[in-house]
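Project outcomes to date are best conveyed with an example. Our students and postdoctoral researchers have been running inverse folding experiments weekly, and each run begins with a structure described purely in tokens. The record below, which covers 433 residues, was selected by the lab manager from last quarter's runs and is presented without edits.
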């Protein structure tokens, strides 16, 4: 861990970006638990849960192309701060939701919140390569993953406790405050002058109505980068449905029987908190173990993405046959070890090989793609549960089958492009075209 602590000590810009992530992600998981609790309080429909995640995912897909252009044209720090402040104000609106007649208002606020998130995510993905050295990108991304997973574990657990004892409203209030605090830390970042768009480039972006198409054209000219940018999209075809299914696993299949003895009145909420805690461990440990084992060279990073797909698919298949809460948690650990590795290693590859002038749009394309496939996966799960009447674990088996296909496609891509990668630890960069 000394390597990660050293990066935080000597790089104040990354430290402020990281602190903002710690605070806002902690609040995010309060929001997830509170939203699930509120939906189940207002309606018991599986489709309603699918709509919740669609309201989170689809705005990210719709607005990401525009967000990528903005991230390449304007100051990325200012975009992130504005997004945080507006999201903090939006989340306060959840406090007004009281009865089933307000469900439309809940979805509307969720759409607005995640439309603003669409501005934040590409800017953050692009700015990371501006504030750390190329050789530190894997370290920074692994630390981001560990932070995300730790906040998942702590935020989900404490969010469940707060929602159970004080209600969903208290959890929403905590989430709102986390955005405002995040904006304070991100506002302290000082971006190097050379990372600001040149006047010529900014003017070119400004006069082009379809500047985002430049990013697509760049990806078409770089099929290897395009494949890496689609890696998360392939994984989200599997894990998107699991966002819905985990709630059903917790409430219907494996509620925590002894929840009342530890002061939690809702057994389903207790199990969901445990699932998120284990998910946090898996996504945090996975990239760290894989990096220690594989190293930082581009070829080994590519292998790590492949192994991430393998663990994701194996864990999902295991989830389709679990028969106890303990097995559920072990299968979840396996699955999330894969998702964490896939996420970190593919992000590090993109940050090292994509030129800065295209980075915002490439990350927006990546984000839009994964939210689209995640939305497809999510609505498919709701459809199979409510319309087709498949059992919960039967739907999980369908997702595992999809995982097998996606893993095979990625393995073929990996083999076809293995000559594009080098063993040297120095990150590769693709020449601008």
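After processing, the design step wrote out the following sequence:
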């Amino acid at each position: 861990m000394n390597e990660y602590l050293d990066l935080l000590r000597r790089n104040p810009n990354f430290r402020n970006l990281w602190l903002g992530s710690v605070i806002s992600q902690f609040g995010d998981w309060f929001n997830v638990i509170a939203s699930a609790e509120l939906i189940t309080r207002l309606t018991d429909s599986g489709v309603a849960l699918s709509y919740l995640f669609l309201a989170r995912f689809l705005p990210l897909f719709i607005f990401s192309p525009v967000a990528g252009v903005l991230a390449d044209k304007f100051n990325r720090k200012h975009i992130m701060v504005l997004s945080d402040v507006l999201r903090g104000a939006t989340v306060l609106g959840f406090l007004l939701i009281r009865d089933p007649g307000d469900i439309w208002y809940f979805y509307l606020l969720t759409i607005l919140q995640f439309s603003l998130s669409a501005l934040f995510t590409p800017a953050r993905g692009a700015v990371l390569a501006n504030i750390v050295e190329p050789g530190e990108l894997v370290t920074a991304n692994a630390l981001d993953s560990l932070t995300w997973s730790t906040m998942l574990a702590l935020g989900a657990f404490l969010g469940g406790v707060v929602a159970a004892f004080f209600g969903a409203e208290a959890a929403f209030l905590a989430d709102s405050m986390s955005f405002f605090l995040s904006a304070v830390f991100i506002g302290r970042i000082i971006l190097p002058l050379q990372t600001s768009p040149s006047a010529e480039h900014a003017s070119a972006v400004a006069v082009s109505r379809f500047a985002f198409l430049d990013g697509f054209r760049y990806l078409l000219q770089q099929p290897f980068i395009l494949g890496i940018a689609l890696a998360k999209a392939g994984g989200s075809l599997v894990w998107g449905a699991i966002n819905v299914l985990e709630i059903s696993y917790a409430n219907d299949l494996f509620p925590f029987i002894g929840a009342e003895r530890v002061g939690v009145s809702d057994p389903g909420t207790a199990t969901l908190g445990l699932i998120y805690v284990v998910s946090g461990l898996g996504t945090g440990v996975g990239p760290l173990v894989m990096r220690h084992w594989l190293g930082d060279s581009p070829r080994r990073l590519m292998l790590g993405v492949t192994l991430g797909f393998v663990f994701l698919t194996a864990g999902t298949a295991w989830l389709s046959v679990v028969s106890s809460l303990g097995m559920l948690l072990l299968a979840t650990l396996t699955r999330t070890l894969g998702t964490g590795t896939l996420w970190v290693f593919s992000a590090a590859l993109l940050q090292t090989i994509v030129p800065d002038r295209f980075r915002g749009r490439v990350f927006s394309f990546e984000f839009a793609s994964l939210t689209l496939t995640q939305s497809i996966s999510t609505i498919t799960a709701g459809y199979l549960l409510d319309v087709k009447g498949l059992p919960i674990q039967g739907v999980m088996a369908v997702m595992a089958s999809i995982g097998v296909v996606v893993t095979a496609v990625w393995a073929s891509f990996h083999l076809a492009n293995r000559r594009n990668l080098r063993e040297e630890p120095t990150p590769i960069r693709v020449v601008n075209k």
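The chain has one domain: 10-189+212-420. The domain at 10-189+212-420 is CATH 1.20.1250.20 (Growth Hormone; Chain: A;). The training component of this project remains on track.
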